[in-house]
Amino acid sequence: MQPQEGTMRVKICSMAQQAALVCGVMTVFVLVFHNFAPETAYSKASPSSPKKSPVLGWPERAPRSLGRDYELPGAENSLQEGGGTTEGQTGARGAEDPLVSDEEERRRGILNALVATATAKPTTSLDDIFVSVKTTKKFHKERLDLILRTWFKLAPRQTWFFTDEDDAEYQRKTGGHLVNTNCSASHRRTALCCKMAREFDAFLESNKRWWCHFDDDNYVNVPQLVRTLGDYDPTQDWYLGKNSIRAPLEIINRDNVSQRISFWFATGGAGFCISRSLGLKMMPVAGGGKFISVGDKIRLPDDVTIGYIVEHVLRRKLTVLDEFHSHLESMKLLNTDNLASQISFSYSKHTRGKMNALPIDGLDNYQDPTRFLSIHCRLFGDAPYCPK
Ligand code: UDP
Ligand code: MN
């Protein structure tokens, strides 16, 4: 018995050493690869972009944020747009395999422990994320229904809708997750900042590790959102999203008008995520509704105000993730072969009635003009409306 036990222990030890070696080599490889990975055209000027982009082009368009209520250059006390701005489904372990030996189990345990130590970050699950969706009464039917029929089903406990009026029908449909912010129902900067302030405060109160904001015309690929956040440590400062302009935004510093300040921001229409650590640093500046005053001070929309707080006030950086997509991108340029690796999609109606929507097969355009049902069918295929 004893010699056998001894042999077992030696075996396990040597397996542990091998596992440690493999892990070590893999970690070094990942670090080296990360450092030498080629940068995408626009990630050069901005923080790191760890994944490959399926986006083939970058249309020169003004970000939605600056399109409407922005105090344009030339206006009283003008701010100026900077150069180039011409415009729980973690990879969860499957069911227990009865054929896996104890030894194999132990080996896996060791490997997992090593991975956890090597990356030194907590594992991320869907429950770690507070998802907020900005909406307005007039879009409850048109936009929320689509979300409720698709991606909301994968994150019903984690997702909250921030709107501007009570609505008993949608309060019920969302399982009590409709928040009436009492902000005004408009697309003006002040109204959007008012809602964003409520989203931010609700995140702080939630005690979740991550806050992810989306617009109500976003499709969110929930499992990929969880997987992606798993690559980042929420106890560190992370601001993850997609810029919609090619250069940092440049504005006049209102505290010293002879100075200009420039910063990147993640476009709200593509969605963005902020780690708890960063959220806590933002709290003294933006918590308890102060976000609205910051927006008022710089007179810029909600998503730009987030960028201003993170990059200018707190001196942290936006990390660009190509997997977030707003309708400022041309959806037809996205590669529909790798949908599963993307985080968000969007759609918009062109002025001449044509849709900027993902060119994906599935339901016909009449049933699914935004293509969100077809995206959901392609990714999960489990809804009654999916083609058989
Ligand atoms: N929105 C809002 N109040 C409005 C109009 C829009 O809160 O009166 C929200 C809308 O629900 C969406 C975001 O603002 O989440 C952006 O609006 P939209 O997609 O209509 O315009 P975009 O800015 O993308 O062109
Ligand atoms: Mn939109």
Can you give a write-up of this model?
- β2, α4 (168-173) and β3 (178-180) form a beta-alpha-beta unit.
- This protein folds into two domains: 58-119, no CATH class; 126-379, Alpha-Beta Complex (Spore Coat Polysaccharide Biosynthesis Protein SpsA, Chain A), CATH 3.90.550.50.
- The model is unreliable at 1-13, 20-101 and 103-118 (pLDDT under 50).
- It is built from ten helices and 13 strands.
- The chain has 388 residues and is an alpha/beta fold.
- α1 runs parallel beside α2, α5 packs across α7 and α8 (290-298) crosses α9.
- The protein is 35% helix and 12% strand.
- It has a seven-stranded mixed sheet. It has a two-stranded antiparallel sheet with strand order 5-11. The protein has a two-stranded antiparallel ribbon with strand order 7-8.
- Bound molecules: uridine-5'-diphosphate (UDP) and manganese (II) ion.
- Uridine-5'-diphosphate is lined by residues 64, 134-136, 139, 185-187, 191-192, 195, 215-217, 269.
Helix fraction, binned, reads 25-40%
Radius of gyration: 23 Å
CATH-level-2 architecture of the largest domain: Alpha-Beta Complex
Give the integer mean of the pLDDT values: 79
The low-confidence runs, each spanning 5 or more residues with pLDDT under 50, are: 1-13, 20-101, 103-118
Counted by DSSP, the helix tally is 10
Strand order, main sheet: write it out. Answer: 3-2-1-4-9-6-10
Number of domains: 2
Strand content: 5-15%
